[in-house]
Amino acid sequence: MFALPALIALPFLGGLAAWLVGLRNGSARLPWLVSLLTLLLEALLLLGVTGMTGGSGWRGHFAMPWIPLFGIDFRLDMDGLSLVMLWLNLAIAVPVLLTSSREIKERPGLYHFLTLATIAGINGVFLSTDLFLFFFFWELMLLPMFGVLLIWGGEHRARATLKFFIFTQGSGLLMLLSILALVFVHVQETGQLTFNYFALAGTGAMSRAAFPIMLGFLIAFAVKLPIVPFHAWAPEVYAEAPNGGTILLAGILGKTGAYGLIRFVFELFPAASAQVAPVVMAFAVVGILYCGWLAVAQDDMKRLVAYSSLSHLGYVVLGIFSGTTVGMEGAVVMMVAHGLSTSAIFLITGFIEERTGTRDMRRLGGLWPAMPQLSAFAMFFACALLGLPGIGDFVGEFLTLLATWHVNHVMAFFAAAGAVLSSIYALTWMLRVFYGPPVFAGEAPLGRPVAGVMWTLGAATVLLLVIGFFPQPLLDLSAPAAPQQIVSLAGGAR
User: Fold this and answer.
1) Which of 48, 107, 289, 317 sits most deeply, having the most CB atoms within 10 A of its CB?
2) Mind listing the pLDDT tens digit for each residue in 189-235?
3) Looking at the predicted structure, is the pLDDT value of residue 488 above 60?
4) Rounded to whole angstroms, what are the CA distances from 350 to 108, 115, 414, 438, 443?
5) CA 215, CA 212: separation in Å to the nearest integer?
6) What are 96-152's pLDDT values in tens digits?
7) Angle at Cα 402 formed by Cα 396 and Cα 408, nearest 5°?
8) Residue 486: which pLDDT band, with cuts at 50, 70 and 90?
9) Over the stretch 370-424, which tens digit does the pLDDT of each residue have?
């Protein structure tokens, strides 16, 4: 089935076309239109694969030999979890595209190529079931982001890029070593050289070397998510990246780490992950409280949202390592809701910075009279941050806390205390930016938000309300399939 590789190839080719158009034409409009057309075609392709059904929970399959000498295949498989993440990736790409139309004036074609190449790499991460191929796409999605940050980033972009590079490449090397170790253990036990996820699942679960191998995967994904204490790169990178890059990083790139925890740590090494679960959950609780407290102390809007994002990702980790179905469901819902709400808030803060020339909340205030529509959306997403019932974020937090309560009452208590900090920094953001004495008097200096921004924020609002009131369809769809031998959709047993 060629639909799965097309989901990866289409964004890459569309980005390449946008770059070439930008080089030939020199205008920012044509590359933007090419990127928009690429996203529309990607949406149609995703609609086509959504209705597919397969065996054992796997909905789609594609495999062909790639490097047969080393047992490496170009193998893609899609289950419900992959499908949900693919849709989230596409949804996050929309505000990334919107911000570029106003923010990127220098080399717009190259910018669109790098962002769409990142999106293609992320799709590859969500579909790969050959571990070498997974690592290939894991690196592919990072390399363009280095370019986005280094070329279009803020004043301290060089330092932020260096920090991003050291953390991500160091953790990537650790993951590669873990992959090779798992493959070598499999060769010793079976005599078969392969990187096939399904073939290696039994080795990962039963091997005596499972714990150190699992630890390598865990640290690599913890850096990308990120989890305290591996979070040091994230606030500065989020703050220095262009607004589109920040949305891409916080909205979906970090979710690849959570996806990796589910797919490669929890499913490949169930016993070893259960051993380390109490420690990881303790770090998640510390991250919820620590990053929440740092968010309260911020004056920079982007840094406030960055730390609040890191705090809420702690709930995702709690759900995954609770070892319960309810916790896993809550983690997936939290990933989707967090991606939508955080991307929307970064879109709002980016628009405010564009119109006012600052993101320092000490220099802002009283924006509601000048920007009533945008302020109303900001109020809604602030409510999402603090976990108001009826919004998707509340469903994710409630399910993860419920699962944590059944595992450890003390951890659940302190994790729930993070909701208090969420209320403080969400309401502080609203009071300091949208209420109080007006700093920018009148509407003329700020102008009305563009229609695309309003439509995007409206769509995110609707999706979060649907998840908040009717979460069951998402829970049913997103259940990860078991890493067992599957029947190829072409008809043969693999």
Assistant:
1) 317
2) 888 999 999 999 888 777 788 899 999 999 999 999 999 889 989 99
3) no
4) 18, 17, 32, 19, 18
5) 5
6) 998 887 788 888 899 999 999 999 999 999 999 999 999 999 999 999 999 999 999
7) 125
8) very low
9) 888 899 999 999 999 888 999 999 999 999 999 999 999 999 999 999 989 999 9
The closest of 305, 302, 296, 284 to 228, measured between CA atoms, is 284
Whole-angstrom CA distances from 330 to 213, 428, 481 are 27, 27, 16
CA 78/CA 35 separation, integer angstroms: 25
Residues 6+ away with beta carbon under 8 Å from 473:
none
Closest CA to 70 of 198, 193, 179: 193
Q: How far is CA 31 from CA 10, 17, 99, 112, in A?
A: 15, 8, 13, 7
Q: How far is CA 49 from CA 82, 232, 488, in A?
A: 11, 38, 16
Q: What is the dihedral of CA 198, 202, 205, 206, to 10 degrees?
A: -160
**Token pair listed for 395:** 């469903």
- What is the number of alpha carbons within 13 Å of residue 438 lying toward its C-beta? 12
Which amino acid appears at position 205 of this protein? A
Amino acid at 199: A
Which pTM was predicted? 0.93
